[in-house]
Amino acid sequence: MILGIGVDVVDIARFEATLERTPKLMERLFTEGERGLPVQSLAARFAAKEAVAKALGAPAGLDHREAEVRRGEGGRPELRITGRAAEVAYDLRVKRWHISLSHDAGVAVAYVIAEG
């Protein structure tokens, strides 16, 4: 059963300019394992973090680093949820996450489904 769904779109050039203007933002938004990726991949991961929050109902107190996008088997993206986000997911009885990322024509998009 689908418990929540989230989607987010990010303008890659605008996102890159924001990261350049505010260097400490990289550490506030991304885990150590996510840093160092190309900007379009970072933009897609940021979109995924926002989509996770939406799928959880946008509860207060979430940290962007609590949703980490990792490369799974065959390069497929996977979510690792920790902290407050994991607590909310547990309370909602989320058992599985589905994620899709894409970037093209200057935008990055992420879809996230929370399944129970």
UniProtKB/TrEMBL annotation:
* SUPFAM superfamilies the UniProt entry points to: 4'-phosphopantetheinyl transferase
Q: Where is it mainly found?
A: cytoplasm
In the record, which residues are listed under signal peptide? none
Q: Which reaction does it catalyse?
A: apo-[ACP] + CoA = holo-[ACP] + adenosine 3',5'-bisphosphate + H(+)
Keyword annotations: Cytoplasm, Fatty acid biosynthesis, Fatty acid metabolism, Lipid biosynthesis, Lipid metabolism, Magnesium, Metal-binding, Transferase
Q: Which domain of life is it from?
A: Bacteria
Residues binding Mg(2+), per UniProt = D8, E50
Enzyme class, first EC level, given as a word: transferase
**Which residue ranges does the record assign to the 4'-phosphopantetheinyl transferase domain?**
4-103
GO MF annotations in UniProt: holo-[acyl-carrier-protein] synthase activity
Could you tell me where this protein is found in the cell? Answer: Cytoplasm
The coenzyme or cofactor needed here is: Mg(2+)
Q: What InterPro entries does the entry give?
A: 4-PPantetheinyl_Trfase_dom, 4-PPantetheinyl_Trfase_dom_sf, ACPS, Ppantetheine-prot_Trfase_dom
**EC numbers, comma separated:** 2.7.8.7
In the record, the note on similarity to other proteins reads: Belongs to the P-Pant transferase superfamily. AcpS family.
State its role.
Transfers the 4'-phosphopantetheine moiety from coenzyme A to a Ser of acyl-carrier-protein.
Name-wise, this protein is Holo-[acyl-carrier-protein] synthase
Specify the species.
Answer: Nonomuraea helvata
